[in-house]
């Protein structure tokens, strides 16, 4: 029987769905006889997603449904499901008046209802899709994967239809094995009804598959909504240049989901993929790597790619990425500017070298500043987003002053108006070193539910422990009240007013004596 594969991206923010696109492209290259279709429910009005799914299944009659589930955890300082989750939480936990605490509690209730409703809806869509498909093919199968599933695969097991194949991490090799009718025992997945292998998420990904440019001529034929993402003109469209992250940051799940081995895509194939999008009018590219330059040994590879982009004659493009600014040199900085880098994000987390070391982030703030100066000297004049995650471990007034000093120096390098501080509080996730630290130190109890939004759990998962938790909560509330549209800068200003700015040299130094490093927080 000829396979008929339907990829369904479950509703989420309408970010270019590179995961389903790359899966469909890979399957087409390996099984050109398979028929495929992509349904992106992120582009469908929320009230129509169920009807659209049923209609598409009836029209397409798939033998295999592949669901992509992007988001579950909701802690972020941005408006979303029921409003701003950070603001609701902090109002409920730290509001100074009963009225403000009540407002936060009511906002939190709306958020909680929306969160659980989305989970129920997505689980319902998976069940409806499978039931509908089996009306046409009694043995239709379902695979569920994506970022959310890779993190919360253990919690979802009891809620998915029996027999569902749950994919952890990338899915190309898994789909190959499934379509070949081979055993899935060696794949990074499990079948609902059978217990997942212990430590499944920590297993390394499959060996590198031959990676060629995505064939967008083909993708256009199987994805009706493709042009929806191109019509805006100023959209960033995702292109992947590598997979994997070699680092060990205490709160991050990328390093286990994508694997520690960095696997590079051939430069000519990356440029060929960009060229296809460029010829369709795309001028904005987002390199979707966990880190565009994950370590210094990949500087040469980044230079090779950017030289190839410049040689390809794609004029007037702009690109963005997450970067570790400690992995630059003068030539690479110039290539980044010349090739059109128009924005980048750096996950500093803290401007205190002492805390950077404690969080196992593996970079040197002094080098970060030196390399940012290289970018400025190369002519970079665009926006940068600096992600600060306060109060992760051992935060105190002295380290806050250090972060303020570091941020002010970044402003001196690029200009205050170009440096946008993004204030995060970590949403603690399973399978991370921070989770182990929380369990070992009594912040969490074994058997807790990381998908719970009950207040007594959510307050711990939105990581902001005492003794600094209340102080940060009240400062953030004051920033929301003063200037919610420039929240990050307002938080930095308030922190400086309360705690001052340390000497920059203090921020960039990390004496080893007396430090409590997370040495025992590994699995």
From TrEMBL:
Looking up SUPFAM superfamilies in the UniProt record yields: Radical SAM enzymes
Q: Which InterPro entries match?
A: BchE-like, Elp3/MiaA/NifB-like_rSAM, rSAM, rSAM_horseshoe, rSAM_sf, Slr0320-like
Q: Which Pfam families did the record assign?
A: Radical_SAM
Name what cofactor the protein needs. [4Fe-4S] cluster
Ranges for domain Radical SAM core come to 231-465
| Keywords on record | Iron, Iron-sulfur, Metal-binding, S-adenosyl-L-methionine
Write one Gene Ontology MF term.
Answer: iron-sulfur cluster binding
Identify the domain of life.
Bacteria
Coiled coil ranges (UniProt) are none
What are the annotated GO cellular component locations?
A: cytosol
Matching entries from NCBIfam families are given as: rSAM_slr0320
The protein, known as: Radical SAM protein
Tell me which species this is from: Candidatus Synechococcus spongiarum LMB bulk15M
User: What is the taxonomic lineage of the source species?
Assistant: Bacteria, Bacillati, Cyanobacteriota, Cyanophyceae, Synechococcales
